Amino acid sequence: MSELVVLNQNSDFKRLYNRGTSYTNPALVTYLMKNRAGICRIGITSSKKIGNAVQRNTSRRKVRAAFAPIYKEYADDLQGYDIIFVCRVKTRFKKSTDIEMVMRSQFKEAGIIKA
Q1: What's this model's pTM, rounded to 2 decimal places?
Q2: Mode of pairing for the β-strands spanning 41-45 and 28-34
Q3: The CATH number of domain 5-101 is 3.30.230.10
Q4: Domain definitions of the chain by residue range
Q5: Is the pLDDT at 64 greater than 60, yes or no?
């Protein structure tokens, strides 16, 4: 299993927002796109609509915690994808296990992981 790379360049986020495929849920929005690097790169965003800095960071931490077991299980399938998770207001009130189920359903819908 290779190391996870974090997206932090504004141009990468803009590229995924414009050309990536999005999957929505009241708790989370996921943008996916194949990359040529052959590695899995993720980014997590949360807007000020979610709340103050503490609530935004908590939401991002929950998303990161929810993605960890998925990546551990499906690391080979996720290689070659850029992924952006956009936190929504309801993300604050969900547990990481609930967010993990949402992510799994979005990845299944995208065809990245098998049912």
Answers
A1: 0.94
A2: unpaired
A3: yes
A4: 5-101
A5: yes
Beta strands in 17-93 (DSSP E): 21-24, 28-34, 41-45, 81-87
What band does 3 get if pLDDT is binned at 50, 70 and 90? confident
- Tokens 């927002």 correspond to what residue? 17
pLDDT at 1 over 70: no
C-beta of residue 108 within 8 angstroms of C-beta of residue 70:
no
Distance CA 102, CA 28 (A): 8
Rounded Cα gap, residues 2 and 73, in angstroms: 12
CA 9, 72, 105, 80 dihedral sign is positive
User: In whole angstroms, what is the distance from residue 90 CA to residue 93 CA?
Assistant: 5
Determine the Cα–Cα distance for residues 78 and 60; give it in Å rounded to an integer. 20
